[in-house]
Design goal:
Distance between the termini: 27 Å
Mean pLDDT: 83
Largest sheet: none
Number of domains: 1
CATH class: Mainly Alpha
Strand content: under 5%
CATH topology: Growth Hormone, Chain: A
Order of helices and strands: HHHHHH
Radius of gyration: 17 Å
Low-confidence stretches: 164-169
């Protein structure tokens, strides 16, 4: 989440697009996020564990494409779209997963914890992004890619959590 508050710097410096392209990139990000949200229900119902890993992988891929765009506008826009899909999909997939593996007594608190953790992630990412932005937007993106890759790897290695009504998909 260290890239989200710095989209303007990413668009103008990393993507080398004019400032006038910022609203268009926000639109691409937002529409892509809606696509991610729309697909998240199917993915989390059909593939509960795999959906989380897939969404985290898409975050990593989207950020990597941004980092590799090197002033190529089409590549940059593709990176923004992939990143937007992932950012839209990840929270509902995570929320669904947590609610499924929580006991009925813990579910109300579990839902609150997910929202809190996601907001802490945004705050921590924004803080980290602000600390490294002086080194350029590529530094912010590389740190975000690294963090996303490590998190994705950890998710992939985690032991599956299954409830009685859920398989190991």
């Amino acid at each position: 989440m260290s890239d989200t508050p710095y989209l303007t710097a990413l668009v103008t410096q990393l993507g080398r697009l004019p400032g006038a392209a910022i609203p268009l990139m926000l639109l691409v990000f937002g529409v892509s996020g809606a696509v991610g949200i729309a697909g998240s229900g199917f993915a989390s119902d059909r593939y509960p564990r795999g959906a989380i890993v897939a969404a985290a992988t898409l975050v990593t891929v989207g950020l990597a494409v941004l980092a590799l765009s090197s002033g190529q506008p089409v590549v940059f826009i593709i990176g923004v779209a992939i990143w937007g899909i992932a950012v839209g999909a990840f929270p509902p997939i995570l929320q669904t997963r947590v609610m499924r593996v929580s006991t009925s007594a813990f579910r109300p608190l579990a839902g609150s914890i997910v929202v809190t953790v996601l907001n802490l992630g945004v705050a921590a990412g924004a803080t980290l992004g602000g600390l490294v932005l002086d080194h350029g937007p590529i530094a912010v993106t590389l740190i975000a890619v690294t963090a996303a890759a490590v998190g994705t790897f950890a998710l992939a290695l985690m032991r599956p959590l299954n409830t009685p009504h859920e398989g190991t998909r």
